[in-house]
Amino acid sequence: MAVAPSRGVQMLRDSALAGWLLSRVRQDGAELLAIRAESCGQQDYGWIMDHADNLQLQIRHALAPIEALRKCVEADGGRLLVTTCPVVWQVVDGSHCPQATRRCRIRGATPFRSRLPFQSLAAVCAESEVRFLDSSPRFLKDAEPARLFDSELPGLSERGLAFYARLIADYIVANPPQRW
Predict the structure, then answer these.
(1) E strands along the chain, which residues?
(2) pLDDT tens column, 45-62
């Protein structure tokens, strides 16, 4: 017996804006997900650096909405899954994308090894009882990790997008929600 979609899901399906956004993601997904040059600055990446200032308070504030998101998703019958996707400088040397490294003012030896972002997100998800997938170890273990990232923009390549999607799909299949 098929379950009728909730009002929220039906509104989303009928939404012209949602349809337009999906078509844009299909058409320009990699570029839309990449970090723009004008938004790049070292302060944007302070949280990934190995010797970052103590950013625990800022990270906590940034992640505070996870609890509210969980409640919202559960109210609509779903279960929230939070995933991580490392940025290029957490996996490969900055020389892989020299222009982006310069534009984003990345300093120091790369790849950065700090686990702070992933550990912070895992802790907040555990506190909020939200499922969490840290994909960064799989990115680091890939035979050719540089091929997972664009060489001009600090974002995933097409191969990287497919790799990340597969990791999420594998997680969902291995850890299915109680009801579909």
Answers:
(1) 81-84, 131-134
(2) 655 555 556 666 777 777
With respect to residue 154, please indicate whether it lies within any of the assigned structural domains: yes
CATH of the domain at 151: 3.40.50.1110
The domain tally of the chain equals 1
Could you tell me where the beta strands, DSSP code E, fall in 32-156? 81-84, 131-134
Contact status, residue 171 vs residue 81, Cβ threshold 8 Å? yes
Report how far residue 98's alpha carbon sits from residue 152's, in angstroms, rounded to the nearest whole number: 8
Q: Which two tokens stand for residue 24?
A: 């844009």
pTM: predicted TM-score of the whole model, two decimal places: 0.69
With respect to residue 64, please indicate whether it lies within any of the assigned structural domains. Answer: yes
Measured CA angle at 155 (ends 166, 44), to 5 deg: 125
Residue 131 included in any domain: yes
pLDDT digits (tens, 9 = 90+) for 89-145: 999 998 898 888 888 888 888 888 888 888 988 999 999 999 999 999 999 999 999
Range of the domain at 146: 36-174
Question: CB under 8 Å to 30, separation ≥6 — which residues?
Answer: 150, 155, 156, 157, 158, 161
The dihedral over CA atoms of 83, 85, 91, 97, expressed in degrees to the nearest 10, equals: 180
Q: Is residue 28 part of a domain?
A: no
Query: Residue 132 and residue 84: Cα distance in Å, rounded?
Result: 8
